[in-house]
Amino acid sequence: MTHWDEVEALPSPSSGLLQLARLKTGMSQRELAERAEVPVTMISAYERDLRQPTLATLLKLLRAAGFDLRLHLAPHDPHDEVLAGLESGRSEADKRARDRQLDAWRNAVPVDGAA
To answer: Which of 9, 17, 55, 58 has an alpha carbon 20 to 30 Å from 66's alpha carbon atom?
Structure first.
């Protein structure tokens, strides 16, 4: 599986935002649909990525859940593409060595009383 396959497997931003907003408030899809005055099937389709809401609809749904969406433009940061390119050039042995080092860092225990 490539980096881009993994990205495509993630929910769309609108689906993720809608689910997050609804779950943070503890609302069911039905409750959100009632507050937003839309069919519950619409909420379900958006959350399952079967349909994409317009920005106006997404804002309406998020507002019904008690949230505002604030957007801003920022210069493109190629960080993820650079890392994906570096990762694709690693050998399997390099990837295993990196994974062992990450595991060692995660499992490290602080030294008490270092003077």
So the answer is: 9
Instruction: Say if residue 91 is exposed, middle or buried (CB neighbours under 10 Å; 0-12, 13-18, 19+).
Output: exposed
Q: Quick one: tokens of 34? A: 């009632």
| Distance from chain centroid for Cα 21 | 13
Per residue in 7-56, pLDDT tens?
557 889 999 999 999 999 999 999 999 999 999 999 999 999 999 999 99
DSSP assignment letter at 110 = P
Tokens (6 digits) for 14:
């609108």
Pick the CATH number of 3-64 from 1.10.260.40, 2.60.120.650, 3.90.79.10, 2.130.10.130: 1.10.260.40
d(CA 82, CA 94): 17
